[in-house]
């Protein structure tokens, strides 16, 4: 009986790549498996556009339009948002993988000069950076900022929504950038 029990536990354990308590390294490993859109949070630093790549963002509610973004509390981006209580969330297109990498480098200069749409080219005013080639930009007021562990959770009350002609989103998962594939097209090709 004991041998059967041990074999059962071993067989079940073989199904799992990871079995852990709430360790930060285990959590990071598993969260990297999630495929999601990539965004750049835009702020103003020394009156110049500044950006930081993020993947932890989500809509909160439709009425009023509100979103949530999580930012490392030690970054200048977090300090900018806490100071000005304004930020933009730019959802990146596939054409912006290089910009995403640039804005993801810890400690690097992340000024966005040359990447933003000039104010006089925008159809409506925006108080924060709007990136060229983004699939959408949300200009937000930070209505609530809360520190949780190493990060700040920022609730953004959306002031302006800008979305140009539809572009393919930039995706990230399993430690790399990914391209989108329409599943209806993929399954049609498989059955042909």
Automatic annotation (TrEMBL):
SUPFAM superfamilies, per database record: FMN-binding split barrel (SSF50475)
Stored Pfam families: Flavin_Reduct
Gene3D superfamilies for this protein: Electron Transport, Fmn-binding Protein, Chain A (2.30.110.10)
Keyword presence, Calcium: no
InterPro entries the record matches: Flavin_Rdtase-like_dom, NADH-dep_flavin_reductase, Split_barrel_FMN-bd
UniProt keywords, alphabetically: Oxidoreductase
Oxidoreductase as UniProt keyword: yes
Organism superkingdom: Bacteria
Location of the Flavin reductase like domain: 31-179
PANTHER family per UniProt: FLAVIN REDUCTASE, FLAVIN-DEPENDENT MONOOXYGENASE, REDUCTASE SUBUNIT HSAB
Similarity annotation: Belongs to the non-flavoprotein flavin reductase family.
Name listed for the protein in its UniProt record: Flavin reductase family protein
Species assigned in the record: Bradyrhizobium brasilense
């Amino acid at each position: 009986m004991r041998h059967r029990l041990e074999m059962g536990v071993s067989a079940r354990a073989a199904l799992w790549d990871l079995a852990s308590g709430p360790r930060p390294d285990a959590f990071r490993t598993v969260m990297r498996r999630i495929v999601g859109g990539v965004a750049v949070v835009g702020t103003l630093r020394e009156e110049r556009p500044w950006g930081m790549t993020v993947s932890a963002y989500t809509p909160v509610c439709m009425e009023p339009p509100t979103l949530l973004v999580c930012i490392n509390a030690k970054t200048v981006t977090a300090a900018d948002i806490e100071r000005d209580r304004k930020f933009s969330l730019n959802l990146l297109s596939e054409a912006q993988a290089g910009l995403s990498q640039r804005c993801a480098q810890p400690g690097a200069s992340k000024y966005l000069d040359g990447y933003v749409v000039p104010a006089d080219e925008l159809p409506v005013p925006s108080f924060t950076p709007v990136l060229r080639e983004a699939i959408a930009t949300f200009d937000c007021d930070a209505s609530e900022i809360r520190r949780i562990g190493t990060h700040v959770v920022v609730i953004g009350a959306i002031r302006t929504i800008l979305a140009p002609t539809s572009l393919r989103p930039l995706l990230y998962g399993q430690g790399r950038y990914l391209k989108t594939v329409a599943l209806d097209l993929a399954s049609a090709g498989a059955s042909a």
